[in-house]
Write a structure and sequence with these properties.
alpha/beta, FAD/NAD(P)-binding domain, Flavocytochrome C3, Chain A, domain 1, Methane Monooxygenase Hydroxylase, Chain G, domain 1, 15 helices, 34% helix
């Protein structure tokens, strides 16, 4: 067993910032990560970091833009924390040596991004996330923070009180990918989940293969609700053959979208008469798919993104890696021809329910970054708001887990205060399959003493692995592929009741098939088949919760479009969706959105661009 004050699970932007903050607050910190830190998916973020740094801009304007972009489903305390603290965090990164792009007068460059009323997106070329990741990893190395590299965290060691809000997280259990060792990691102060996104729920995604929502699923099974899982962002500019991201920075610099008829459709077809290509991402994605569905797409699949008019000097200076991506994956030379693009799954607005300090309803368990939902992004995230979320809420979670007083949280967690159980009958059985064997069942630890809880969890995970390795059965890949196909077909940009119901049936069949899953590779070292099999369970749980929320929410808000009701229904749906595991029986419930900020109340208005 390994022991530290604070255990950070994941080593992307949020995890690195959390570890640095906890160490600054005096804690003995360790990071447990299935990827080397600089291989984390934060490195794929291209566009930039929103921060109100210039004269004429303010955190209040940034907060208003963020709340408007969220379609008024963001929680004001979290939104305002993001916008107030982002400038300081950007300056901190600059002091740590992050190589931001700069103006001729030496100031950090900022450019326009979708949904912003001011060009407040700071950037480092079109590889901002890559530079941010390396800058913070340098700090981790400098400070001597322990990193357990290529350890896959399998489960949380949580006590088993009936009420999740009375439970305590004592650590995690992880599998050493190199040796096959399964060990416990005791956290005497707290565990911070920073495991990133869950794009592998879909088959066309900008996310890496490693983004399987591990932290969200583990917290869910431990008793923490998933919040607003139906809100999935589909980025409008991904390469058709791979899902590789083409930065919003291309449009921020002046890139133009055209359909097969050469029309600048964002304006000519009235999708966004004022902002055009710089409308929010959900608006642009729906516009592109509408063009394709109405026969104006290129090869009935994509549209064109053109940046040739920007000139070679500007493109090379600010967007050089975009040229390489388009050439390498599509054979398109962005200097002389337009690039093919189409919407692809990009980001999860929902995740592990937390307050604005990163704390969950389980004592000692925190979450930050894309795996968490405070809620900063509500129903739709603005471009340039993901990276500041990592550093602002990573820092907050690190401080809080290390014992620093951040004041009383305004956002409640768990079933407290004003909540309502959903009045919706699903037509298919959900959750754990009756009679689940140890490879699929969870079960809480019987003990409440920290060491005993951790030991029991370790033994349960060892049994889990032995069962998978010893028996004959299905390969996880066919099950995951079925999940990805039905999610892409039925829970995509455009959603309709029959398709959502079909997806739940498909997911039930996939969950039943998982009862017979097995690992054919007998090795104990670098066994990717075993790792992917464990990840597929997480993909299943997330896909089900996501689809439950999408089916029940009969309105059109942000990234969630419903064929049956294409209006935003504030009277009935200005509230967050929560899904709780309840010992294997998912329960859907709601809590109100917090629109009261520090100095104002954010009144819902028509969201137009």
């Amino acid at each position: 067993m390994y022991e530290h004050d604070v255990i950070v699970v994941g080593a992307g932007g949020a995890g690195l910032r959390a570890a640095i903050a906890a160490q600054e607050a005096g804690a003995d910190v360790a990071m447990v990560t299935k990827l080397h830190p600089v291989r984390s998916h934060t490195g794929a973020a291209e566009g930039g970091i929103n921060a109100a740094l210039r004269d004429g801009d303010s955190w209040e304007d940034h907060a208003y833009d963020t709340m408007k972009g969220s379609d008024y489903l963001g929680d004001a305390p979290a939104v305002e924390a993001l916008c107030k603290e982002s400038p300081e965090e950007v300056i901190t990164l600059e002091h740590w040596g992050m190589p931001f792009s700069r103006e001729e007068d030496g100031r950090v460059s900022q450019r326009p991004f979708g949904g912003l009323s001011f060009p407040r997106t700071t950037y480092a070329g079109a590889e901002t996330g890559h530079q941010m990741l390396h800058t913070m990893y340098e700090q981790v190395v400098k400070r001597g923070i322990q990193v357990y590299d290529e350890w896959h965290v399998m489960d949380l060691a949580v006590s088993d009180e009936e009420d999740p809000s009375e439970r305590t997280c004592h650590g995690v259990v992880a599998y050493d990918i190199q040796s096959g060792e399964i060990s416990g990691f005791r956290a005497t102060g707290g565990v911070i989940l920073a495991t990133g996104g869950m794009g592998q729920v879909f088959d066309h995604t900008t996310n890496a293969v490693a983004n399987t929502g591990d932290g969200v699923a583990m917290a869910y099974r431990a008793g923490v609700p998933m919040e607003d899982m139906e809100f999935i962002q589909f980025h409008p500019t991904t390469l058709p053959s791979t899902g590789v991201l083409i930065s919003e920075g291309v449009r921020g610099e002046g890139g133009i979208l055209y359909n097969a008829e050469g029309e600048r459709f964002m304006f000519e077809h009235g999708y966004a008469n004022n902002d055009g290509e710089l409308a929010s991402r959900d608006v642009v994605s729906r516009a592109e798919l509408t063009e394709v569905n109405e026969g104006r797409g290129i090869e009935d699949e994509y549209v064109h993104l053109d940046m040739r008019h920007l000139g070679e000097e500007r493109i090379i200076d600010r967007l050089e890696n975009i040229l390489h991506l388009a050439e390498d994956f599509e054979g398109a030379d962005g200097l002389t021809e337009p690039m093919p693009v189409k919407p692809g799954q990009h980001y999860a607005m929902g995740g592990i329910e937390t307050d604005e300090h990163g704390a969950t309803c389980i004592d000692g368990l925190y979450a930050a970054g894309e795996c968490a939902c405070a809620s900063v992004h509500g129903a739709n995230r603005l471009g340039g708001n993901a990276l500041p979320e990592l550093i602002v809420f990573g820092k907050r979670a690190g401080y809080h887990a290390a014992g620093k007083d951040l004041g009383e949280a305004e956002i409640p967690t768990g079933k407290t205060g004003d909540y309502e159980v959903a009045d919706y009958e699903f037509e298919v059985e959900l959750g754990e399959v009756a009679g689940s064997d140890p490879a699929a069942a969870d079960g809480g630890a019987v003990a409440t003493d920290g060491d005993a809880v951790l030991s029991a969890t370790v033994e349960r995970q060892r049994e889990f692995v032995e069962t998978l390795m010893a028996r004959e059965g299905r390969n996880h890949a066919e099950i995951r592929s079925r999940v990805q196909r039905t999610m892409t077909d039925n829970v995509n940009v455009f959603r309709a009741e029959p398709g959502l119901k079909e997806a739940l049936v498909d997911l039930r069949e996939a969950r039943e098939a998982y009862q017979d899953v097995a690992v054919s590779d007998p090795s104990r070292t670098f066994n990717t088949d075993l790792i992917h099999t464990m990840e597929t369970r997480n993909v299943l749980d997330i896909a089900e919760a996501l689809t439950m929320g999408a089916l029940a929410r009969n309105e059109f808000r942000g990234a969630h479009w419903r064929q049956e009701n294409q209006i935003r229904d504030d009277e009935n749906w200005l509230k967050h969706t929560l899904v709780s595991w309840n010992d294997g029986e998912p329960e859907l419930w709601y809590k109100p959105t917090i629109l009261e900020g520090e100095n104002k109340t954010y009144e819902p208005k028509v969201r137009s661009y």
